[in-house]
Amino acid sequence: MHINTNYQNIAETYLFSEVARRLREFQAANPDAPVIKMGIGDVTRPLCKSSVEAMKKAADEMGTAEGFHGYGPEQGYDFLKEAIAAYYVKTSSVKLALNEIFISDGAKSDIGNILDIFGDDNTVVVTDPVYPVYVDTNTMAGRSVTYLPSSEENGFAPMPNGVKGDIFYLCSPNNPTGSAYTRAQLKEWVDYANSLDAIILFDSAYESFIEDKDIPRSIYEIEGARTCAIEFCSLSKTAGFTGTRCGYTVVPDDLVRDGQSLQKMWLRRQTTKFNGVSYLVQRAAEACFTEQGLAEITENIQYYKRNAAVMCTTFDELGWFYTGGHNSPYIWFKCPDNMDSWTFFDDLLKKANVVGTPGCGFGKCGEGFLRLTAFNTYENTVEAMERIKKIYK
Ligand code: PLP
Fold first, then answer.
1. 117, 128, 197, 249: which could form a disulfide with 265 (CB 3.0–4.6 Å)?
2. Which of 108, 202, 375 to mutate to test the pocket of ligand 1 (most atoms within 8 A of CB)?
3. DSSP notation for 30-79
């Protein structure tokens, strides 16, 4: 018997535990400090009414002989796929066939599981800084990854620049940097991937925060994407489903490699290893995409966006370099006085009692930056920004 020794190559994720440790230490020494936590990547507003009602109704159905649902289709019920297809038409003018949409328990699982359909010898490219799941899932499978550096110069939205690869991970709007690719930039990526016969794994978990018309909400808005891209999306940030769990993955009909349909392979993978999302959750998700549901979830997104706007105004006033905030719940900014990420984390905690997430925890290129999130109350956000202005002006 042998274990998968690749697990020994996974970097220790001490980022959030170290943030928690430093915070604990600070609070023990300063029990009355009015700490505001702006490092959290979890939503804080409750589920919308339409979703809750739909879930209750589904629970009642399940308690009747006629309404009971056992195993459902592994790839999701048509009622939810139809709602998602209509959402794509509405928000992106993208038309998807129902067999191209796969419902899951969230984007994170699918982003990891998709690797089942790719050979181990592929070259994988991620942007740095990066959502750690892309790196760790490949490390588990024994693949090493190539990092595409990003920086102030490229606005944390790196372009291919001739990098060789078979699988490219793109996340737009990005976690952690909040940067988002324009239509022209994504077109360049799509053309590049097609020219190499490579695949783009496109993570659009934050698409609902996009406001600029020039920033695509789906990669399929770009001509040529259907032959090179798989898109992952989630109701976590769109509709507060971080605890309820529902996401979807799009694998177009046109995606063929080595003579095989990737969609057929993904269907085979899912029907073998996954048994679908619960009926209750799929009904709750469907309710988010009704006219009423969309109005309700939009209200929550607008709430976070108002927080993000307060943060942008503050950093504009301070003259600090930042990305995100406009099409994203994340603001990624340069630490003042050339402090490194952890030094500034401590300084901000000590002087302003505000907690952020050190950028260096997301990759080498994150050193010297900090991430704040808009997932807080408006009052806390305003208060935190007032403190930052007072201290660092
Ligand atoms: N992708 C990105 C970029 C994320 O930031 C997150 C969550 O923080 C996810 C995917 C995970 O989404 P889900 O909650 O649907 O698993």
1. 117
2. 108
3. -TT---EE----S--SPPPHHHHHHHHHHHHHHTSTTT---S--TT--HH
